[in-house]
Amino acid sequence: MKTLYSKFVVTTMLVMIGSLCIGFLATNTYYHQVVKEKNDAKNVNIAKDIVHYIETAKPEDLNNYLKTLGEIGYQIYVTSGEEGYFFGGDYRDKTLSASVVDRVLQGETYHGMRDFPKETFVTGFFANELINTVGVPFTYENKPYALFIRPDIRLLFSEVHTILAGLMLVMTVLSLLAMLLFAKALIRPITKLTAATQQLAHEKFDTVLDIDSADEIGQLAVSFNRMTEKLQENDRIRKEFISNVSHDFQSPLLNIQGYVDLLKNPLLTEQERQEYAAIIELETKRLSTLTKQLLLLTSLDQSTRIVKREPYRLDEQLRETVRKYRWQIEEAQLQIAYKLEPISYAGDAGLLQNVWDNLLTNAIKYNVEGGQIHLQLQKKSTSLEILVEDNGMGMTTDQLAKVYDRFYRADASRTKQGTGLGLAIVKQIVELHGGTIQMESTMHVGTKVYIHLRVLS
Hints:
This protein has about 450 residues and is of the alpha+beta class.
């Protein structure tokens, strides 16, 4: 498997090599398009200055003069057409056609540097060949000569050039090493992140990523630690959920099993048989309710759930809910008063019915004998407000803070029939409709539940 570090190293090397090649090609193009002709013209002027001095000063020892020029950095070839002489550095290739020499002897200027074949930069500028020169004619002691000259490249590289070349080499090596070390430091947090994710894969949600950095990787580490905290919390909730579900399923099942065993006794009276059957029926309904609420919660938890909004009369739905539970209200000797404005609302009627069922049954279940229930629906400026109020047993501040937790029951002994899922379902359905729920409660005074549903424009 290729590591990120090896990829970075290979990419860095490829970038450096690619940059070198591109730079070489760009320099080569610049040389051929701009420098080459200027270099030729410059050397032609130098050659003309040399022959001008020879023709005007008429040095007594021409060979010694040309030898001196060769020693200070030029490669020189002088010929009269019959014989030729070399001064300065040696040419690697001394081939030069007789026609070129004849044209120069006749007065033409030879532009060998300018007309040198367009090959690579190295062979263009550094080609140590006689044809890669400039040639000019001159007369010495009434005899025509041709002077061919080019700079001696070997002598052009002085100590300064050597120092610069060494500087470039050291800079390249140090830059490469610095990039490799930086890459190692950059990848180290990613390696830690990989190891941490592997720990999470084994459900070790207490894993903490220790990366102190202010860059994007540091931000990623912070987000990762937040994720692990959330996973820890979700794992705790999941375990509590399983424990609660197990308890709430086990209790009625044990009751059912116990009373079924009792029913097998042939000596039971009819009254006892009816009493045991009623308890089994009650526990069966409790299991059915719990199963339905768990299925509903699972459906609500799905992030892809889409609320089916259709307009309907909300006041009629609330009125029908009151009629549905009228028998329970009368059985508990409660009084109910409601004030419902005629309002049409675009929402999921099926889901909202669960809200009204839960709130009204809670108001009945946790009320006091002879108590009252108030139900109100009114339209505000930007929302609808539904109030469900009872004057029952109420709740403490601590109990009120936990009422939306799944399986939580304010009645710690669980003597009241219920699953502890109702208000969790209510809160999720209201929030799915873009609404809010607010609850106020005082011990031995009662509870008020406010539902605000946002009106879509």
